[in-house]
Amino acid sequence: MADHSPALLSAHLHPVRYHRTPPVLAGLLLSLLLLLAPPVSAAQEDGGSVTVGSKQFTENVILGHMATLLLEDAGLTARHRAELGGSRFLWEALRRGDIDLYPEYTGTLIEEILTDDEVTPETLAEVLATYNVRMTAPLGFNNTYALGMRPEQADTLGIETVSDLRQHPTLQFAFSNEFMERGDGWPALQQAYNLPQQQVRGVDHDISYQGLRSGAADVIDLYSTDAEIDAYNLRVLEDDRSFFTEYKAVFVYRADLSERLPGAPTALEQLESTLSEQRMMQLNRRSKIEGTHEAQVAAAFLSEDLGLAGVTAVGTARLVDRVGQRTVEHGLLVFISLLAAVVAAIPLGVLAAKRRRLGSGVLLLIGLTYTTPSLALLALMVPPLGLGFVPAAVALFIYSLLPVVWNTYTGLRDIPEPLLESAEALGLPPAAKLRLVELPLALPSIMAGIKVAAVINIGTATLGALIGAGGYGQPILTGIRRADLSLILEGTIPAAVMTVGVLVLLEGIERLLTTRRSTSSASAPAT
Amino acid sequence: MVTLDNVSKTYGQETAVAPLSLTVASEQTTVLIGPSGSGKSTLLRLMIGLITPDAGQVTFDGQPLTPATVQDARHRMGYVIQEGGLFPHLSARRNVTLLARHLGWSEDRIAARVEELTDLVQLAPDRLAQRPDDLSGGQRQRVSLMRALMLDPAVLLLDEPLGALDPLIRADLQGDLRAIFQELQKTVVLVTHNMHEAAYFGDVIVLLRQGQIVQQGPLQALLETPSEPFVTAFIQAQRHTLLSSDGAA
Fold it and tell me: Is the N or the C terminus of chain A less surrounded, counting Cβ atoms within 10 Å?
């Protein structure tokens, strides 16, 4: 990984093959991981079960489901952590032992992950072994880059191969941002084919399809198993100089998996050479264009093509159950991180208000945590804490500190001087003065801070799904990937309801705290 | 009871209290008066330890006021300021009983004391359940006085206690206050800028100017044997104000 430093820069210039992950976000996640990733190889604690990971795009999720279903069919306990992130993220998770296996592409391994090593397709398995990682035989299809056009225009201009593009320098090219910058992307392609086009725009991959259909672009890059190729009947230009390398789909898995559960790799080998490019494209289309759940697409394939009739799809829980489960996940994340933040932030705010010098340091430090984008903060948590609930909760905790610390500070500083003097003149010791007078007077401000923190927390917690913490972010991520509004709403509406509920609850707590102190004349004496 | 011995206090370049010495007469009402900036409020706050002198010593009941002794001393002093300084988040009763509760008084003892004080300051008992914001200015000052008297302190310090009140309420409370002072026979220090108030309350009047004592003694002494022309001028100025405003009425 040495030539990935400075990681931030190089990760941006050579993004991993995320396919439809928004490149900026993915780049951030990735680069932070590269910066921080310690040489860890945490062993799987749970000896009896297999954790499958998958990247954040449809094809990879379907493959993840296939693996999970096959493992279950072999009598193993399997868990699918779907849509975790980009290639580098999955690779690190695999190395750490957060996941046992995930679907990967040979080209990505060679060109992007094992860049330190001299790797050829022939030596790939050997090099992987030095990382204690193995790979299965290829599943069949090759999901490589390709160039695509509208069929009518290709026919009119007589274009069939990439070389044919040389005759048409005025064609509008629009490539995904990633393709624009990859070592095996546009610059190298242009050189290899000696293409004259100068006007090339970098766009988001999904948008490039729309651009092509609307006529704003004439040539775009595509992945050879993209559902859109079939769905929109696009012309894929022949790579007549064999420029694009192979991206054969395989599963990579931890070497210790074969020792722990020898049945697991065996189960995966059933997929060897079963998926043609055409078939994979169909499956992608079923999910991406027709909106069938990836798990069902995977189950249908296994029963139709492999004759595994007993396989049933997971993830088809009823809406109520799905939302219920995510509410528990999301609620726990929010509740625990917010509670911990309040418990930590109020003393910090008091400290900031009481000790001027120290206080400005505290406020500055907490302010700095806020300048870290929430997504980056989440990514920062992964190297030391792994995937799932804990890193998400810690990131949310840090993110919730600022509003509460700040409002505690200002609430205390805004107490009118005569009131402070009155408390002092009464002869209340500092602790009692703080508890009986200052904190109650600052309460409205502190509660406002807690409310702000709660709203931010609930919103930010949706990003927790990116690192396997589940919650309302899960359907939102899937919905964004599939451009499925109803899925997005399945996450955002409950999140909005939760926000309202939490605000009402906090309002009630505030009212309770205020009335209890002020009016009751016969409540217990303070101790 | 309270003495200041060569006490001084400056804020940056500004002298709030020049080195001065003062012994507050026990069981009498001492009025600190002077134009604004004369240091009268600063003196009061020095006495209760809200500010510490740059030099000199404040003594309460024979004990120098130090960080170690100040809390106990405050429990034996009552302090009332212009707007009362009542805590807006607590009911009137809670304001009055806050310290006693903190010190662990029994409910019975608290209730008995509150009843006594309610009688003394002539507050309608149902007002006690209300928050300061729902009380009139006069009621607030009565509650404030109750809070100051809750532990039956030896000394009562009042900083312009009538300063923010309407004239009619002011006159009412003024009479009640004097009756209370006479009934309790406490050592009282009252800060005002109003000569009539000083004359009305003061057994001893201490006239201040620029952080220094110009003259102290009974009103009669200030009128008959002024230590310098400023004394007469200060007294006359307020008399004129009163007469001219009376004349205009």
Answer: C
pLDDT band at A8 (very low <50, low <70, confident <90, very high): very low
CA dihedral A27→A31→A32→A37, nearest 10 degrees, is: 130
* Band of pLDDT at residue A38, cut at 50, 70 and 90: very low
- Superfamily holding A6-37+318-523: MetI-like (1.10.3720.10)
Task: Assign domain A145-236 one CATH number from 3.20.20.190, 3.20.20.70, 3.10.105.10, 3.40.190.120.
Answer: 3.40.190.120
- Going from the C-alpha of B113 to that of each of A446, B147, B152, the distances in angstroms are 35, 11, 9
Residue A190's φ and ψ, nearest 5 degrees, are -60, -40
Query: A426 and B83 in contact by Cβ < 8 A?
Result: no
Contact B143, B98 (CB under 8 A): no
Average pLDDT, integer, range A361-387: 85
Neighbours of A355 (CB within 10 A): 12
Over residues A395-401, the mean pLDDT reads: 93
**Do the chains contact at B89 and A441, CB–CB below 8 Å?**
yes
Task: Using CB atoms, pick whichever of B48, B107, B131 lies closest to residue A525.
Answer: B107
How remote is the C-alpha of B199 from its chain's centroid? Answer: 15
Which residues on chain A are in Cβ contact (under 8 Å) with B70? 427
ipTM, two decimals: 0.89
pLDDT at res. A522: 40
pLDDT, average across residues A385-406: 91
